[in-house]
Amino acid sequence: MIDIQLLRENPERFRKAISLKKFDCNLDLVLDLDERRRTQIGEFESMRAKQKAANQEMAAMQKGSPEFLEKVQELKKLSAEVKELEAACKDLEAMWLEQVLSIPNVPDASVPIGKDESDNQVLSTWGNLEDCSSHAKPHYDIDGFGNRIDFPRGVKVTGAGFPFYVGPMARFVRALLQFFLEEARQAGYTEVLAPLVVNEASAMATGQLPDKEGQMYVIPTEGLYMIPTAEVPVTNFFRDEILEESQLPIRRCGYTPCFRREAGSWGKDVRGLNRLHQFDKVELVKWVHPEKSFEELESLRKDAERLLQKLGLPYRVLLMCTKDIGFPHAKQYDLEVWAAGQERWLEVSSCSNFTDFQARRANIRFRPKEGKVTPVHTLNGSGLAIPRTLAALLENNLQEDGTVLVPEVLRPWFGEERLVFNDA
RNA sequence: GGAGAGGUGACAGAGUGGCCGAAUGUGCCUGACUCGAAAUCAGGUGUGCCGGCAACGGUACCGAGGGUUCGAAUCCCUCCCUCUCCGCCA
User: In this structure, what is the dihedral angle of CA atoms A206, A211, A216, A219, given to the nearest 10 degrees?
Assistant: First the structure.
């Protein structure tokens, strides 16, 4: 959530941010509620102070004495008033909070202004598209693909979007995960193995609730949600905590399966590995000093880029425009890998700086050497999402003989030079 | 899942209706002592919100949410969590 103090001081800054992000929320209502809330709090607290003082007097009186009983009668009325004022406060507070939570984060000045995805800037492109296999074809059209990634069995067992990875392909996914995790470790991220379901408070803190609940699978009997990304449990690790300045920055990585309902994305771009309900991903998360978050975003992006470079996959870096960055984001890069068979770019990582927006919502703060407790800045990025990376890899490295050449960096983990699709 | 016990500040641990934002101890910070350190002594040491330029004042917070009462850390209800025993189980 935003800093209400800043909104009071400079509403225009937020008005602009909202229009740039094309979000719909009523700033005047927020400011009005803020005003009323403060007045209400003032009234309640002064009445409450009066009550406390009177109760103080009572404590000194002899219980049951006439003046005591008289005082009780007198205070009953005051007590009722206090209760009313308190209830009014709570109501206003709740309305106020709901509105404050609906205001998006302000985009950084470096974020290009744009109206749709065509305004995202391609910052750089790495690798040569021509270097990809001349035999490339969409991964789902590779001979024997179904032997290795079994969608029909997934449909039978669970439903669409839950494939089985079989034999060498299962091992290959594991090799990718191990490669990603090891790279992250060497880049200074501490590995965590996190819960795959989270409670409501956690989903609220990272912003999946209340607006994006359609994205998550729900376990209604327990009131829990299956995670759409490791970001949720990993970020919530420090929820409601005060960190020491000397601890910052904290860098963590975590592998988890991710579960996404993807409601509404029916029919488009969903073939093969392009979009699944369950997929594996390594996520990188940082908690940093507010002054360092934008440089930490650059290094986060580079950490993700390095993975694609080592895998030899051509990719491009997009600086997302104001319309395309999400609600809590201040700045966001997307990494898109080239899938030579489909001849299209696939998003495999999104690296974001949330500044203090998510931290304020999740109540993650730090104690500066001087001054008062302050929200940290949080960042995260994929490093990387498996299925699309895998799709590009299969397509780009497809050989004439129908096998896929395994990148050097994966061989220590996979143990073989080629991925074969047809069982001998 | 059943039975019992319990959840208090950074930690340990008192407190069972008003004198409790909360004893005491530990830790931490400052000062004294010391060449320096240890030990000792003295003082300080939470977070949110509201008001205030500030000093500061007010208010809330003793697992969470309701309730009783003039007044709740303390009594009642619901929920969550931890521990012990039993059951079940990878």
Answer: 90
